[in-house]
Amino acid sequence: MSNPGPPRIRVVDLETAGTGQSDVCEIGWQDVVLGGDGRWSLSAERGARWVNPGHPISPDTMAVHHILDEWVADAPYWKDVAPAVLRPDGGVVALAAHRASFEQRYCSPRLTGGAEWICTWKCALRIWPDLSRFSNQMLRYQRRPEGLVHEMGLPAHRALPDAYVTAHHLRDLLNAASVAQLLAWSREPGLLPRVPSGPERGKPWSALDDRALQSLATDRDESIRFSATSELRRRCQQDEPLATAPAQTSFL
């Protein structure tokens, strides 16, 4: 039997044609592997492939990633590209992406083989709550991850460079918390460290009164609802009286 290699998590990033359909036009990936010393690091396994979206790329989207229709015209379709990238030989512990809900719209369980996902955005909120912003590129320049080769992370908004940058965040997250913990956080909405908008913008949740929290707990944004509800729950638990042991054992 061949050596399956070290455990790995594959970071993926997608660029799309911007029409709201199944319109992937590029996929990039970068693997993060577990070493014998128990530390995670980037491997040499990375790449990108064009995908034919089946229709023209919108000008608005082209202005973001600069991918031209003629570059993808002869590429295979998504259903033919995805399985080999999302289910590589040797398997993966999980797949990962920054704001992974976007990638999960296209990388269905049928294409991934049911792999679990780590969202580096949600996990960054937990591990680095003192940072001011949490986009992939803002994390890059606020944190300046060790070993990130600047030129390999460019141009931004292209699949391989973005996956490469995300992989550095994932590596550092994995070396700060367990895979199980990152997966658990990724299944929940984002736990925002501060109120993101409105009259209370920028305040930590602990600074809000109960009335403001109850109002935000009904917000349309699931991460705002989750964050407000989590603070309310914390306060309820804090206010619960501690159970006391009886003065003497009862024999009845």
UniProtKB/TrEMBL annotation:
The keyword Thylakoid does not apply. SMART domains: EXOIII. Keywords: Exonuclease, Hydrolase, Nuclease. GO terms for molecular function: exonuclease activity; nucleic acid binding. It comes from the Bacteria. InterPro entries: Ribonucl_H (IPR013520), RNaseH-like_sf (IPR012337), RNaseH_sf (IPR036397). GO terms for biological process: DNA metabolic process. Residues 8-179 form the Exonuclease domain. This is Exonuclease RNase T and DNA polymerase III.
